[in-house]
Design goal:
Layout lengths: L4 H6 L4 E2 L4 E4 L7 E3 L7 E2 L4 E4 L6 H9 L1 H9 L11 H4 L9 H35 L17 H7 L4 H4 L10
Antiparallel strand pairs: 1-4, 2-3, 2-5
Helix pairs in contact: 2-5
């Protein structure tokens, strides 16, 4: 959904920036996303916590929250019965493991490499889809809607069909326009 720039400017508290870690805190508790520079201006709502790590790498924090240990810690703070949630003050009390800089850097490198591999796979998938579509001739199929179709009476009588689905190019019949 697009938010006009004038409205976006008033939502400073909910701006999402590259390097932020998003954490689902209402209903879908524990869903985690790491924000890259793939998108432009982003904003969120009250169902997610926007974590902006300053002393540790965001990739490390996201990887920790996605781990079994991190998920257990997040869910430990959930409150409520019908619609559970984690309140923001409780997030400040979540324990984050103290890990050496070398280990954190290695985890950060692995997360970045995984993201790069995913981006490569998206490009390769798109290229493969284009090659397959062209090889099957599907790039030349016209599925635009038509207001009417014409056929001879004898073909209609032989087919014993007079319904619009039979004459639609999407039905896969051999009816010609």
């Amino acid at each position: 959904m697009h938010v006009p720039d004038a409205v976006y400017a008033t939502l400073r508290r909910s701006h999402i920036l590259p390097g932020d870690v998003l954490l689902g805190i209402v209903a879908t508790i524990g869903t985690v996303s790491f924000v890259t520079d793939r998108f432009g201006k982003l904003t969120g709502n009250c169902k997610i916590a926007i974590l902006r790590p300053r002393k540790i790498e965001g990739e490390f924090l996201a990887a920790y929250f996605l781990s079994d240990l991190g998920q257990r810690e997040i869910h430990r703070w959930a409150r409520g019965t019908i619609q559970t949630g984690v309140i923001l003050p409780d997030l400040k009390r979540l324990p984050i493991p103290v890990v050496g800089k070398t280990t954190r850097s290695r985890i950060t490198e692995l997360v970045r490499a995984a993201y790069a591999a995913r981006q490569t796979s998206v490009v390769c998938y798109s290229q493969g889809e284009s090659i397959l579509t062209a090889a099957l001739g599907l790039d030349r199929v016209d599925l635009s809607p038509h207001l009417f179709y014409e056929d001879t009476y004898s073909h209609t009588a032989d087919a014993a069909r007079f319904d619009p689905e039979y004459y639609s190019p999407r039905s896969g019949t051999s009816c010609e326009q």
